[in-house]
Amino acid sequence: MLLLIFATLFGVLLNAGDALQIQCYQCEEMKQNDCSTPEYIVNCTVNVQDMCQKEVLVKPDGIHYRKSCASSGACLISSSGYQQFCTGRVNSVCISCCNTPLCNGPRRKRPTPSAATSNRPSLFLFLTFLLLPLLPVT
């Protein structure tokens, strides 16, 4: 019985928060405006587009942005292929991929860690050590 409870808690903790659909910002060739406002938010294709992609192009007339949903394979291949062209100078192209909702938007300041911050791995370890002595030894 305790093993069943332990296995259930383990499964819930590992799958908590996993989403089948991600939201990203999407725009084409936006000049100066990085299109990180609510009107540019889209729902990506479920189970196909599992990442957000951001392209920053430095052109003679300024910085241009392209943002979209992407499949992990395509995004990672394109970002690694353009790595050598990501210089920050004119004609530079930088492509980045991320897999959390709206992660291709503006950079956010890192939150200050606090005791109230949820931390699933710590909770899992706590429950493991709490329940481990109750499991029968064979």
Automatic annotation (TrEMBL):
GO cellular component term of the entry, any: synapse
Stored Gene3D superfamilies: CD59
Single GO molecular function: acetylcholine receptor inhibitor activity
GO biological process, any: acetylcholine receptor signaling pathway
Keywords: Disulfide bond, Signal
Span of the signal peptide: 1-19
Annotated protein name in UniProt: Ly6/PLAUR domain-containing protein 1-like isoform X2
Organism, scientific name: Gymnodraco acuticeps (Antarctic dragonfish)
